[in-house]
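Minutes, project check-in
Item: structure for the 128-residue chain
Input as provided by the requester:
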Amino acid sequence: MTACYFSLFYTFVADLLQTLNNPRRREILRLCWQEPLAAGAIHRALGDVTFGAVSQHLRALRDAGLVEVRAHGRERRYRARRTALGPLRSWLETSWDDALYRLKLAAELEASRRGPSPRRTARPRSRP
């Protein structure tokens, strides 16, 4: 029984960390931490990402149980489920207030915007 419980807990934590590994998802979670936001508002706040990408990130966060969705008129509003994060909640709240975190996030977002680094090819050596 304990091994099964540990296995389920490990899987849950691994999935949670995998979802939070993406800097855009952490930023989306931060945006809807205080109040429910529509996907359009999240898209406008991020600026350099397509609406389709925001939608995919929101789906991943919802599937991981990190955001809840409620219909509000014609919109769907997304709100962070703080209790779903468990002990990671205080770490996220603290890191969001940290200036170094904001700098790291900006660098990660810029790197993901640019895409993967091009492969370097070896230059042929000249023979004397």
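Outcome recorded: The chain has one domain: 2-113.
No further action items on this chain.
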